[in-house]
Design goal:
four-stranded mixed beta sheet; GMP Synthetase, Chain A, domain 3; ANL_N_sf; twelve-stranded mixed beta sheet; alpha/beta; 12 helices; Rossmann fold; 20 strands; 548 residues; Coenzyme F390 synthetase; globular; CapK_Type1_Caps_Biosynth
């Protein structure tokens, strides 16, 4: 849970002057990552962040914040749940049990609420109002709606926000997505708080009762990267119990031993993170007693699942979702289909999943296609036929309780990748994501050969402007920190034969230097001008012949 206060980005517009004008803040390894300066973007008071938190809840939160071994918290955020949200959250909890949103027929069927959503969106969302004016008629059913993609949101996010919804409670979330360019997503406190409701339901399905325990953190979200947003918070949906987002990377802590001491003391009930961060946590010499482990954001391999289950002896739930759409589906036990495919059951929420072909037509049940979702529980971003960028096959299965469920078979597009430094350390791909976004790339493919060589195919957001704009590196110059000349031209990337420019983007030299400092290896960059030149696959941003 990484909702933020909605404050302006600390990175500014990239015109703050030379990066040498002042020392880098503690915990900020590169001038392009200034937004990770501790508490540089704080906009609300605690009372505004947690309107329903009582004195005891604030005391428990402060205990985590002020823990003698706590990391240096980088951010502050709360769930902003208000009294009117409470009955709605309770209703969503009930819906996870009675599954009222899901059709109970054996064959795939569209829930009745979907076309009602289409009718409402057609009159309130600018994108579809404009289409109705252009086409002379508004869409009446989902069949009348063409799929949209993340690129559509990047191009004009405001056109997807309903005009009749007050914007006074907007939370700001970000998504790196499948193409690489960061997307800021408007979130509603109700929809973000509901994620805890859904995780509680998943824990129950795995045989775990998740109720707060005195003296323990309710939830610990774990990352393992060089720089990260970390914070202590409280969950209104869990009676104000404390939670935290922490970075297990050694650079995220003030003193040796702090990491293990803090983790042991808060002893969180639920551990969540991506597979690599959870594996890093499992490798630490610290005695934890989770009730359940929740893995997400990347594919959980059978070996990683066995390692986590063996380390803590509790259920491991693999969740699939996107920041734009929320939690989509989950695999509770790692059971595979007859052909060895993974199985992720769609969550019982106001959520409709289709599998479509590239032209937007439904494929038969059991055949692979693009995962496309229709969502109606974020008032700020109702989505009609949104392509997630992943692929799967859809089937209907009857559960042990006799109820029909929708299952996604063989989800693809969530591979976790690491890069090896010259001295043998492993760097998660998220560390490179931060740099590649900060230096103004719209998309990329970073690959490491078996001999350790690193090659980057880069698609600048504005090649002719040399990485200008919001994600440009600080320093004001076109090349970012350190200046430098144009990228080397030509050369074959990991997928072979990328079309590339020769000297078309002057920011490449500075980015190469930043990657070289991170990985301790030389980086060869090819600048491409078309997304398709990055090679096939929805999420081929990273690959490695070393981390297999």
């Amino acid at each position: 849970m990484s909702e933020v206060d909605g404050a302006a980005s600390a990175s500014g517009d990239g015109s703050s002057g030379s990066p040498d004008a002042r020392p880098l803040p503690r915990g900020v390894p590169d001038a392009a990552l200034a937004e990770y300066e501790a508490l540089a973007a704080v906009a609300l008071t605690d009372a505004e962040r947690w309107p329903l938190l009582d004195a005891d809840g604030f005391a428990r939160l402060q205990t985590v914040r002020d823990h003698p071994h706590a990391p240096e918290w980088v951010h502050v955020c709360g769930d902003r749940v208000v009294p009117d949200d409470v009955p709605l959250l309770a209703r969503r909890a009930d819906e996870t049990i009675d599954r009222t949103w899901e059709p109970q027929e054996e064959t795939w069927a569209r829930p009745t609420w979907v076309d009602a959503l289409v009718d409402r969106v057609a009159t309130t969302v600018p994108r579809y109002r404009a289409q109705a004016r252009r086409d002379g008629r508004a869409p009446r059913t989902l069949d009348d709606v063409a799929p949209v993609s993340r690129e559509d949101l990047l191009r004009d996010l405001a056109s997807f926000v309903p005009v009749d919804v007050p914007l006074d409670r907007v939370l700001e979330g970000s998504s790196s997505g499948s193409t690489g360019a960061a997307l800021v997503v408007p979130l509603h406190p109700l929809s973000t708080a509901a994620e805890v409701v859904y995780l509680t339901a998943l824990a129950a399905q795995a045989g775990v009762t998740w109720e707060p325990e005195p003296g323990r953190a309710c939830l610990l979200n774990v990352v393992d990267q060089r720089t990260a947003f970390t914070y202590a918070s409280a969950l209104t949906t869990k009676g104000g119990a404390p939670m935290a987002r922490i970075n297990v990377h050694p650079d995220g802590w003030r003193s040796p031993g702090d990491r293990e001491a803090f983790l042991a003391d808060v002893d969180a009930q639920v551990l969540s993170g991506n597979p690599l961060s959870l594996l890093a946590l499992a490798d630490l010499d610290v005695d934890l007693h989770p009730l359940v482990v929740v893995s997400g954001a990347a594919h959980l391999t059978p070996g990683a699942r066995r390692r986590l289950e063996g380390r803590w002896g509790v259920p491991v739930v693999d969740v699939y979702g996107t920041r734009e759409a929320g939690l989509v589906a989950a695999d509770l036990d790692g059971a595979r289909a007859a052909d060895g495919s993974t199985r992720h059951t769609v969550l019982p929420r106001r959520f409709h999943v289709e599998v479509l072909d590239t032209d937007g037509a439904p494929v038969p049940d059991g055949e692979r296609g693009d995962v496309v979702v229709t969502v109606d529980d974020n008032p700020y971003l109702p989505l009609l036929r949104y392509r997630t960028g992943d692929t799967a096959a859809l089937v209907r299965e009857r559960g042990e309780d006799g109820r029909w469920r929708t299952v996604l078979l063989g989800l693809e597009g969530r591979a976790a990748v690491r890069f090896q430094t010259a001295d043998g350390r492993w760097v998660p791909s998220v560390d490179t994501t931060q740099l590649l976004q900060a230096y103004g790339l719209a998309a990329w493919h970073l690959h490491q050969d078996a001999d350790g060589t690193v090659r980057l195919a880069a698609l600048p957001a504005r090649p002719h402007e040399a990485a200008g704009g919001r994600h440009a590196a600080p320093g004001g110059g076109a090349a970012g920190p350190g200046g430098g000349s144009a990228a080397p031209g030509g050369g074959a990337g990991p997928t072979g034969g990328w079309a590339s420019t020769t000297g078309g983007w002057s920011g490449a030299s500075a980015l190469d230097a930043a990657l070289r400092a991170l990985l301790g290896r030389e980086v060869t960059t090819s600048v491409v001008t078309r997304p398709r030149d990055l090679g096939p696959g929805a999420k081929r941003r990273f690959s490695s012949d070393l981390d297999v």
